[in-house]
Structures are given as structure tokens and as C-alpha cells.
Amino acid sequence: MYTMNGARLIIKLLERQEVELVAGIPGGANLPLYEALAESRRLRHILCRHEQGAGFLAQGIARTTGQVGVCFATSGPGATNILTAIADAYLDSIPVVCITGQVPMSLIGTDAFQEVDIYGMSIPITKHNFLVRSVEELLEVVPRAFALALSGRPGPVLIDVPKDVQSAEISFHQWPEPGRRLETQPADRQQLAAAAEMINRARRPVLCLGGGIIHAEAAEEARAIVERSGIPAVMTLMGLGSMPAGHPQALGMLGMHAARSTNMALQDCDLFIAAGARFDDRATGRIVEFCPAAHVIHMDIDPSEVSKLKPANVSLVGDVRQSLASLLPLLECQERRSWWRQIQVLQEMYPMATPEAVVPEKPYGLILQAAAMLGEGGFVATDVGKHQMWTAQVYPLGRPRQLLTSGGLGTMGFGLPAAIGAALANPGRQVVLFTGDGSLQMNIQELATAVEQQADIKIIVMNNRSLGLVRQQQNLFYRQQFFASDFQIDIDFAAIARGFGMPAYSVPDNGELVGLMARLFSEKGPCLLNIPIDREEEVYPMVPPGAANSIMLGGSHVEKCQA
Amino acid sequence: MSRNVRLENCRIPAAAGMVLELTVNNHPGVMSHICGLFSRRAYNLEGIVCMPVGTGAMSRMWLQVNEAEKLEQVVKQLQKLPDVLAVQRHEGDHPVFAGLTAFTDSPRSTD
Known about the structure:
The complex is a heterodimer of chains A (563) and B (111). Chain A is α/β, with parallel strands linked by helices. Chain A has 22 helices and 20 strands. Chain A has 3 domains: 2-172, Thiamin diphosphate (ThDP)-binding fold, Pyr/PP domains (Rossmann fold); 189-349, 3-Layer(aba) Sandwich (Rossmann fold); 363-532, Thiamin diphosphate (ThDP)-binding fold, Pyr/PP domains (Rossmann fold, 3-Layer(aba) Sandwich), CATH 3.40.50.970. Chain B has a domain at 28-102: Alpha-Beta Plaits (2-Layer Sandwich), CATH 3.30.70.260.
């Protein structure tokens, strides 16, 4: 017989889930939970400075390990603050369990102090959510939340726990089994055979690897397919890392900021195989003109994604790793020489980066420089903006889970707390964060968390004193009216970081960058390097929002397309 | 092209639609989950009836929908909700709504 209060029960259940890190902030409505947390020997609490930071820190843990990231917030403003990070996890299918405090049951519905209906607010941005109405329910709800977060298509689950439920006593005889990932049904055999035949017969197929490849740990299976069947592979932003960037059959990212050659190859393909990808508009451009000549094979664990935006000729609903593994023996070995000749011509005509663009003072160059210094074992986090797209374009990512980036929601402020979470969940491995001056300011308070926890993160601020990607759209599509996108003051980010107790450097104009970058990476613990970037440096090529992927602006050798 | 043809062939009279019968867990948030799904995904919901079943651990809901084109998506999305235990489709009208027209057809006095 075990007797304890609801708060201790939650903490014990988390320990039984083998959770090690909990990010959060205490407040009036979750103090019983924090009292129990203080007594735990197995859980380490990471105190953040804003609940959104706690949510993203939990994501950093989840994205690098594949395990559930856990975060705590109090009721009212604590809970509303964490919602953006939960929505972000929902759109990128990241397993997160968020436990919020709520006002006592007797006060629910009375507009009590710090009361909001977080259950109602979180419905559309969680995979599932719970308002726990009795302490007994916790025995079922907590393991179930973990099972839901991990099973099928992963996602966030929110548990709202009123304060009196945290304080209520419970006696029970048996611990519930911890929540685990449940197995899914394999894909239909006939559809598998149909897919194999379609691939074997295709002359110009392309395999598109999405975030699902990473969630399902299916990178090896994908690579085997690509090599056996001679198929070129493209990746979505969320799928980057599933094929090493240097692999001869990897064409990099597709979509709005893809290499020109990649989008052009897709225009010509006769079979598009989406594996764990969901036809997001940033990847497909105007969907009716996407891969116009292609049949579609769609592999996804979520049946509602198949044919949601583009009708699939063959659908393989199930775990993508299993689907790919079952497909492999059905495929003929092929070289597809003429298709590759066509692609190589495009790649030679339209290289992603020119020699002038990869000097260390330029965005591509400094990203490649940082990559060389970080080495292969490190993690790469980005915020959202130009620096993010430059990183996605040229960083030589070598393995799944290496890149942490906010894809679906595109949340500025994601990077710093996510990088801290990655560093804390992976001791001994460095994390480089590429951020911008705009993004960093959105969660800059987490510099304090990084210093307090001595997280091994190396922050590179690509500082163009503007909201760069907004400015770029104004430049291209809004009459060059740079309204509200250029910052009017210069911020000394190195001084600010030092104010938080973090070693920091700033590259002076025309200053020596490589030496300072070497110092950044040799520093123990967190460190920041501010690098000025020209405001006019744009991200090219670019597909205008809403346009077809065949319409790309800018980029090297653009003049060749204007014939 | 093929889409136009399909629409021509299966044009549904304006009044008729489809009724989805759901078996769901009965707790205070279920209605929010279902109605929220319809509004968030921009599906129209014409009518809704909900009653507890048996001991009250489950409820049955009848949803009147009129979106032939989006129906597959609606059903798939409903099936993803953990509180939805079963989804059944009924073509056209359903007797559960028939009895209700007596209430909607006669204008109610407001005083």
C-alpha cells in the first residue's frame, strides 16, 4: 500500500518514466508539485526565466533524444506563456508532456486569481490534453500522456492539475505500468507491392525525406532504398540530417529556399515518394504546380496526412521505418543514369554557393567555419530567420537529430532554450546555436539559464540589425518599404551576455573572425560571439510565398534562367 | 478535370447530407474537442445531438455534416481524437434529427 499526495504521485510517476530533466517555473498553483520535486533525487529541475523558455528547453531534450521532454508551468500567465512552445511542438510532432498547475477545483469557473481555461486553450495545439479532476485519475493520466506523446505521430500532451488535486492524499496498491510507445499496424501488403512496382517502373523518381524519418529512426532504411534503387533524395527542413549532406544522392532541402537545381529536378520527376513528409506549403510552393508530372507515393504514420493536400496514388500508412524496410527487397537495383545526368547538369549550372560566398566573413562561409570547428559529434540549433535558412542550405549535417530548428510554427526565440535543452540532455557534446539579433531578443532572458546550468552552448549571433527575412520580403514584394523591420538602435549583445555572466566577444567591423570563433569553441561552458552581417545579405534563391517552386528569385547564376 | 466530373456525378441535394454517429468517452471536455476540430479545420457542422449511453461512461453523438468533398478528412481527423471510440457514417437523413424539426420549424415566441 502506497500513500502520498497528488504532487508526490506525479513526481514518482515521472521518475518511473525515467525522466531525468524537468524544465519549468514555479508559481502559486503548482507549489505542491515543486515541494515534491525538491525531494526527488532522480529528477533535475532546470529553472527557466520565462515559461516559453521552459517549453523550448523540453523540446531541446526531446528533439535530440527522441524521449519525452517534460516542462512545468503554473496556472494563468505561466500556462499561457508556455503555449507557444507547445504549439511549436505540435506542428513539428515533438513528444512533450507539459504539466500546468490550475486553481483549486472549487474556484474553477469563477475567474479566480491566475485562472485561465488552459484545457480549452490547448485543445487545438496538443495531441491530447487532460484536466485532472481527482487525484485517482493521475494514476491513469500520467502514463497515458507519455504513451500518447510517443505513439504513432509524436506530439505534445498537456495535463492541467488543480492545486487541491496536487495536495489530496491517495492510497493505492499497485503502480501503473509506465507509458510506452505503442506499435502500429504495418502498411498494407498490396499497397507495398504497388509502390514497389511504381518505383521500379519510374524513370525519374525522387524520394522526399521528412521529419517522420527522424522520429521513426528510419534514416538507415531510407538510405538503403536510395542506394539500391538509384533514387535522388531531397529533404524537408525537418528531415535534414536523415541523409548526410555529402552523400552523392542527397540533393538537400526542397522548397522555398532550396537549391535551384533541386526544385528544377522536382519539376521534372515522374514519381514523388513522400516518406514522413506532409506537403507543407513552404516545401511544395503552390501545390497544384508541385511535381506536375509525377505520381505520388505517400508513406506516413498519420492516416489523415495521406491525400490531405495532394492525392496519393499509393498510400503506405504505418511506421515509415517498417514501410521502407518492407519495400527494400521488392526493389530492383538501378542506376538511373540518364536521370542522374539530367540532375548533374542542373547542379553544375546552378551551384548553391559560389566561391565568393564561402569566405568566412560571409554568412555561408562563417556557418561552414563553425561547422569545421564544432566537429561531427556536436548539435546545431537555429532560431528563425535568414540565419536559419542559410544554415539549412549549407551546413554539412551528417546525422538525424543533429539539427534543432522550428519548422512548422517558425518561432523566433526557439533557438536559445532549445540549445540549452540539447546541451543538458547530452553532456560532453557541444551545441552551436546560430541565431539572429531579432530572434535572440525574443528569449534573451534564457542567457541566465544557460549560465546557471553551465550549458555547453556556443551562441553565434548573425547580427544584421533587422528582422532580416521580413526585410527581405519587403525588399522583394512590398516596394522596398523597410517599415518596422530595421532596428533603430545598435545593441551590444556581448555586453549583455557578460551582464548575465557569460563570456562573450564581438567581431569588430573588418575584424578577424576566425580567431574569435576559435575562442568561442574553446571556451568551457556557454559563450557568445556577435558577428555583424550586412543588412543587404539576402537568402537566395527564394520562391515567392504562394508561387510555384519553379519560380525562384535570385541565387548564383540566376541569369542563366532568364533566357 | 477528373474532380469536376466526380462532382457532377454525385451532386447531393441541398437538404441531404450525411450523419456521422460517434461513440465517445463522456467527460466535460469531449464536446470542446469535437466542436473545436470542426471549427479549426474549417468544416461546417449543421447539427449536433449528444446523449449519454448506459451508465454514462460513454456518450453517443450525431453530427450532421454537409461537406461531401472534405468528408474523408473529417472522418480521419475525428478518428485521431483519443476520446472518439468509433465513427459510423449514415447517408442522408437520420431519424435522430427527424423528431427535432418540430422544434426548429415552428418559430418560438421570444417573450
